[in-house]
Amino acid sequence: MATQRIIDFLKTYRPEGPCLVVDLNIVRDNYLSFERALPRSRIFYAVKANPAHEILRLLVSLGSSFDTASLREIEMVLAAGATPDRISYGNTIKKERDIARAYSLGILLYAVDSIEEVEKIARVAPATRVFCRVLTDGVGAEWPLSRKFGCVPEMAIDVLRYAHKLGLEAYGVSFHVGSQQMDLTAWNRALADAADVFRNMEEEGITLKIVNMGGGFPIRYLKDVPTAQAYGMAIFDAMSDHFGNRMPETIIEPGRGMVGNAGVIRAEVVLVSRKAVNDAVRWVYLDIGKFNGLAETIGEAIRYPIRTPHDGGVVGPCVLAGPTCDSADVLYENLLYELPVSLSIGDELFIFGTGAYTATYASVAFNGFEPLRSYVI
Ligand SMILES: *Cc1c(COP(=O)(O)O)cnc(C)c1O
Question: pTM for the whole thing?
Answer without folding.
Answer: 0.97
